[in-house]
Amino acid sequence: MSEIIETKDLQKQYQMGDVTVEALKGIDFTVREGEFVAIMGPSGSGKSTLLHLLGGLDLASGGEVFLANRRLTRLGDTEVTVMRRRHVGFVFQFFNLLPTLTVTENVALPLLLDGQSMKENATRVAEILELVNMGNRAVHTPDQLSGGEQQRVAIARALVTNPKILLADEPTGNLDSASGEHLLRILRRACDDAGQTIVIVTHNPTAAAFADRVVFLQDGALVHEILGGPFDVPAITAAIARMNV
C-alpha cells in the first residue's frame, strides 16, 4: 500500500509571552493508505497538534506535510480548504454539531458546503445514517440526542463525503464504554470494508487496541511504535507502561 500521509521534520512552535513552546520537534511520520493508526501520549505531548497539522487545520512552523500526494505546506488557504473538504473527514471529542439543524441536515452539511444539493444526496445521507444506526433519528435535533447518538451523527457527517482519510481527536472521550466501543467498530469497519485511512488521537488503550499500529508521542517527539494490530488491551497497556506514557 502507498503512503497517503507523510510528514518530514514537522515542527510546531507556539509563542507564550517571551517563552517559545515546542509542541512538535521534527516529526517524521507516515500512514499507509487503508491503515488504522492510533496516536497516544500524555497530555501536552503534541498529539492533537499533530492531528490538526495532518488535516490542514493549523500551519506548521517548519517541515512538510504531504496529504494524498499533495504538499499541504505549499498550498494556499483556498486550496487547503478544498483539499480538506474533499479528502478528509474529521471527528472531534465535542461533536461540533449545529444545534438548529436536524440530524440529516448536520450530516449533509459537508456536501452542501461543497456546492452539492440535498436532493441529489438524499440517498447517500440516508445510507450513512443507517450505517451508524441513526436512521430513526433523522429529523431530531442535537439537543434531543444522547452523547453517544451525537457522536454517531458526527461520524456520519465525517463519512458522508466518502473521504480517503478520517481524522478523529479523542472520539470516545465523552462517551460511555458501550457507546465508545460501538463508535470504534464503525471506524474499524470503515477501514476494513471501505479501505478508508483512519488516524485517531486517544488516551484510551481500548480505543488504541482497534488500530493496526500505535505510535507514541512524548514532549513533541515520536518515541515509539508498535505494529501488528488490531491488538488486545493488555498489549497496549504494557506498551504504555514501558514508555512511561
Just give the CATH class: Alpha Beta
The Cα radius of gyration reads 18 Å
Count of extended strands:
10
SS-based class: alpha/beta
* CATH-defined topology: Rossmann fold
Number of domains as seen in the coordinates = 1
The geometry reads as globular
Per DSSP, the total helix count is: 8
Could you tell me how far the N terminus lies from the C terminus, measured between alpha carbons in angstroms?
30 Å
Relevant CATH superfamily: P-loop containing nucleotide triphosphate hydrolases
Spans of at least 5 consecutive residues whose pLDDT stays below 50 are: none
Across the major sheet, the strand order is 6-7-8-3-9-10
Helix content: 25-40%
The CATH architecture name reads 3-Layer(aba) Sandwich
